[in-house]
């Protein structure tokens, strides 16, 4: 037994972990949901009784045009305007059209509408001209 190797914690053949660079690829809709939405709406979109509406199985979101869903993500909901008195932040400065499209597709999916994916050009937020990055 090589006591020096044991003491230093060396393991023969162990490779150093390969770091995964941040933003090396596009995040999927479910990953975007986990990062941006799950803290309030719940990991599975179940919401918080009386405070945050559920997204999973939400008939309003599943039916008709995705415009309401997209605009809610873009603009958020101010607490004083909200039904529950709890607010939701706007995401128009944080997410690109492509990310909002992927996210909306995922949310519509868990709401119960599995239509074809929402395209980025249909998920445009009005962004101020000073918005860094994409228009
Ligand atoms: C800080 C907490 C919070 C975060 C983060 C948040 N929301 Fe919300 N969201 C709310 C609240 C509170 C409401 C309900 C406001 C009201 O009472 O009308 C809401 C409402 C909604 C609605 C409307 C639901 C309906 O039945 O009318 C949608 C859609 C929605 N959120 C999607 C999202 C998505 C997608 C994300 C992630 C990008 C997100 N929310 C992030 C708190 C949050």
Automatic annotation (TrEMBL):
Transmembrane segments: none annotated. Signal peptide: none annotated. The keyword Methyltransferase does not apply. It comes from the Bacteria. Residues 24-111 form the Cytochrome c domain. PROSITE patterns: CYTC. It holds the Pfam family Cytochrome_CBB3. Keywords: Heme, Iron, Metal-binding, Plasmid. InterPro entries: Cyt_c-like_dom, Cyt_c-like_dom_sf, Cytochrome_c-type_DH. Residues 1-26 are annotated as: Disordered. PANTHER family: ALCOHOL DEHYDROGENASE CYTOCHROME C SUBUNIT (PTHR35008:SF8), BLL4482 PROTEIN-RELATED (PTHR35008). This is Cytochrome c. It comes from Sinorhizobium kummerowiae.
């Amino acid at each position: 037994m090589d006591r020096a190797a044991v003491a230093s914690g060396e393991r023969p053949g162990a490779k150093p972990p390969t770091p995964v660079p941040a933003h090396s690829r596009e995040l999927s809709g479910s990953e975007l949901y986990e990062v941006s939405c799950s803290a309030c709406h719940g990991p599975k979109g179940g919401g918080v009784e009386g405070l945050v509406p559920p997204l999973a199985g939400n008939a309003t979101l599943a039916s008709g045009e995705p415009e309401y869903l997209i605009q809610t993500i873009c603009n958020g909901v101010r607490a004083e305007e909200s039904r529950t008195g709890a607010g939701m932040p706007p995401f128009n400065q944080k997410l690109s059209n492509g990310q909002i499209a992927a996210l909306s597709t995922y949310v519509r999916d868990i709401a119960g509408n599995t239509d074809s994916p929402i395209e980025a050009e249909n998920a445009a937020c009005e962004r101020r001209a000073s918005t860094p990055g994409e228009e």
